[in-house]
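My current task is to audit a protein record that another person submitted. Thanks in advance; the entry in question is below:
***
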Amino acid sequence: MYRLPPLNALRVFEAVARHENFSRAAAELCVTHGAVSKQIGALEKWLGLKLFERTPSGVVLTRAGQAYRGEIAGALERIAAATSRLLPRDRPDTLHISAPPTFTAKWLLPRLSQFRERHPFLEIRLKTRRDNAVSSLRGADIVIRRGPDVWRGVYSRLFLEEAITPVCHPRLLHAAPLRSPAELRHYTWLYADVRAADWEAWLAHAAVAGLAPLHSLRFDHSSLALKAAVDGMGIAMGPRAMIRDELETQQLCMPFPHLIAPTPGYYAICSRNDRGDPKISRFCDWLADEARASREAAAARR
């Protein structure tokens, strides 16, 4: 009789050990950060050993964790190789998805467990990318990207409309409340390089085009700019669909809730030949249902 720890926890442990980060492991496994943390906690409790040291930038393997990873990784690779030899190269119940990193972390992952519960026999393989939508279809069944609203040679379906407005931590406004958009010039603006035009678009919408900040900070990902805003470092441009939790928990607030600028929304994109594939249709319908439920919930809170 083999004495084995929970096998799913081993899979989670290997992913966290490889990424040295709970959030990136969660994105790879299509689960939430909390689910990863729970699995690691259960494994450490079962073993009676600490496998990771938590740090502000992620996690680091303990000496015991390093030794365990060396054994576990090889065992999982052998299991995967044996399974791959036994099964067809790509099973028909596998859905390959490509989606942008911030959208995946802030919108898709918190909801994805619900889709998996409805379709437990559909294996999901999710990659976070933000490259060209059409070229990404060579390695994915569904690509999720923000507009334009047409891509040549593919089928695209708008499922999530989006709008932007400045957001910051409430304490940032205690000392100097913002009474008008023009007063933003006294603050630090937080930019995300992947959405470099957002500030300009909102300023034009608010009729203060050309306004410049006192200081600015730039980040490559939107999620980092939003995290900096939560930490009180300045004012970020917040996509409404991505900041629901931070608004509800009052980690962020909207100084100008009446000034919300529409921006290109999110589309599910697939090959025209694959449009009728049942697994693709089910996922696209689910995306639309979740976006509709999110809009209705937001409207009910107003």
